[in-house]
Design a protein that fits this description.
Elements lengths: L3 E14 L9 E14 L4 E5 L6 H8 L7 E6 L2 E2 H7 L1 H7 E4 L13 H11 L6 H15 L3 H4 L9 H15 L3 E5 L7 H18 L2 E6 L2 H7 L2 E6 L2 E7 H6 L4 H8 L19 H7 L16 H5 L5 E2 L5 E2 L5
Parallel strand pairs: 3-8, 3-9, 6-7, 7-8
Antiparallel strand pairs: 1-2, 1-4, 4-5, 9-10, 10-12, 11-12
Helix pairs in contact: 2-3, 5-7, 7-8
Bound molecules: iron/sulfur cluster.
Amino acid sequence: MDQSLLELRNVSREFRIGGGLGLLSRKIIKAIDAVSFSMPDKPWITALIGESGSGKTTIARMILGLLEPTSGEILYKGKNVNEWIKRNKIEYLKEVQPIFQDPYSIYNPFYKIDRVLEIIIKKFKLASGRDETRDLIVKAMEDIGLRPEDLLGRYPHQLSGGERQRFMLTRILLIRPKLIVADEPISMIDVSLRAIFLEHLLSFKEKHSISCLYISHDLHTASYLADNIVILCYGRVVEDGPKDQIIENPLHPYTKLLISSIPVPDPKVRWAERIDLTSIESIKKFRAEKGCVFSGRCPNATENCLSETPQLKNIGSNRRVACHLY
Ligand code: SF4
């Protein structure tokens, strides 16, 4: 079997929550529960789709080495990510780069953006002198559609949200990693700029062989961008497979619900149940503690679903589903 670029093997992550000094008042929450999926070692986009609170960001943080799994293993090019980072963090970050939802949070507000890019070039040893550094910056900005003559010399707060996020893309173009972990990258930018941003992710894959784990609540953009889709529900993978098959023939009731809530530009077509993708409270309310995690919302739930957790099964054509119906 070919080696994967990225592989999550049975990864779980627990958090202790609750106040008070006594250990008894604390509760353990399993944010991620036995998650397994992989990305092939070729230019590829996987979309990891789920509602708020489904554990998407926890997975992103673990892949980036910002959190360790409680159990299971994350492998990049066949090697354990945490061991790689402990051994040589810069080498790992040269391969795997993040794009966060709010780019502002990662900028030092006291540095002009030129300085931010110069630090990156120095850190990853991308140029040997001032002239080469300047040329690289100007070329990367122009390739992303930013005007260096207008933006260099400014501070991050002087850039619009869209400019800041495209500045993140400039950073990616300079570093040329093998994999981008993009966590809700377009949710804070103007609707008019979202398509341009997605086009850049596609061109990174096609022109520069940069793969992407596109993490989002939005199945609509995933269906445009991704090669395959992984559906995450309350910390568990409930379905995955090639993009076209997931969109055209969803099997898991949760995937069906997500697809039916994508707006259709036809006034005669009514949406099915609209999913509240932002309310953590609504998620807590419906999350089943035992059996299938989706049983509290599933129209097909049976007695068996309330007591027995369905395992992810291969059902052919690179598809897997975790539901007692299959
Ligand atoms: Fe619904 Fe049961 Fe399938 Fe869960 S296992 S999705 S509750 S039918």
